Amino acid sequence: MPTRRILLAATAAATALAALPALAQAPARANPMPEELRRALERDPTAPVLGNPDGDITLTEFFDYNCPHCRTMLPLVQQLVSSDPNLRVVYREWPVFGAGSDFAARASLATLPMGRYWQMHAGLLTMRGRAEEATVMRVARDIGLDEAALRQGMLAEPIERHINTSDMLADHMGLAGTPSFICGDEAVFGAMTLDELRELVARGRRTMGVAS
What we know:
Strand order of the largest sheet: 1-6-5-3-4-2
Largest sheet: 6 strands, mixed
CATH class: Alpha Beta
Structural class: alpha+beta
CATH architecture: 3-Layer(aba) Sandwich
Order of helices and strands: EHHEEHEHHHHHEEH
Number of helices: 9
CATH topology: Glutaredoxin
Strand content: 5-15%
Radius of gyration: 17 Å
Low-confidence stretches: 9-27
Distance between the termini: 21 Å
Mean pLDDT: 88
């Protein structure tokens, strides 16, 4: 596997993060990810979850709607979820490509309590052109959302908290950019094939002692 792989335990051990205090390392693995960090990555109530919510392994993706490689990964992640009934996928909106990305992330997260996140998420990742205010609202109208209600929802505190947490986690782990996929104690940066995604999940299961 290329050098884009990052072993997160080493990063976590070398960095202090006030909101995620490190725990003593568990004896089952030589250098595990701290449990507070894993909970923040995998169990944040502000983060959308795809697949089996009670799955035996979690794959976390950091992404941006203006990241071309994130767009190419959408159908592969969907195929992965369809082929693995015990997989849980957590999405972390991490808008790193400017104001348009930030607007898109906030609009998308605002659809989560409306029950329309997946339509908005797919619409933003498959639309033509760059995600910015006008194009984001066009996607929202296309899927039948009320623009005024969406704009009001974008002001909700959990949205600000989600994006701030994404920034904090990415900085803490030294993520290089989007897309970044995390499973077990490992992160991989950049576009991947479906087979590479499956191998990452399989390694995560081995790391966590979960039977495939």
